[in-house]
């Protein structure tokens, strides 16, 4: 159950961060206005809190692993929201990042030395 909770939290963090960054991008680069930017800032703030609910207490480990989730999530967001078509190397890179997430977060660890 702890792994499932962790995966859900990573997905929520990705949604908040990528969605927030996209909203800021839309507000500024696509000139949709300050409300879009404000919504993006709120979403980015939510991302900052979501990570604190991860079961692992090590900030560095959480943030490092989340980096891989962010890479894969960004490609997924771009496909769904912006119609981006990743090539095979995008997909290979994202898969490698997710493998890194699995190793960092879920590899069996012995007692500290």
TrEMBL record:
It is found in: Cell membrane. Belongs to the UPF0060 family. The keyword ATP-binding does not apply. Keywords: Cell membrane, Membrane, Transmembrane, Transmembrane helix. It comes from Micromonospora orduensis. The keyword Membrane applies. This is YnfA family protein. The chain crosses the membrane at residues 33-50, 62-79, 91-108.
């Amino acid at each position: 159950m702890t792994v499932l909770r962790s995966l859900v939290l990573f997905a929520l963090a990705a949604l908040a961060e990528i969605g927030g960054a996209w909203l800021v991008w839309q507000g500024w680069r696509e000139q949709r206005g300050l409300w879009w930017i404000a919504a993006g800032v709120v979403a980015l703030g939510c991302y900052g809190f979501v990570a604190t609910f991860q079961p692992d207490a090590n900030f560095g480990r959480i943030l490092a692993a989340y980096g891989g989730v962010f890479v894969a999530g960004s490609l997924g967001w771009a496909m769904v929201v912006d119609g981006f078509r990743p090539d095979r190397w995008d997909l290979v890179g994202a898969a490698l990042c997710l493998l890194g997430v699995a190793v960092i977060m879920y590899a069996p660890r012995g007692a500290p030395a």
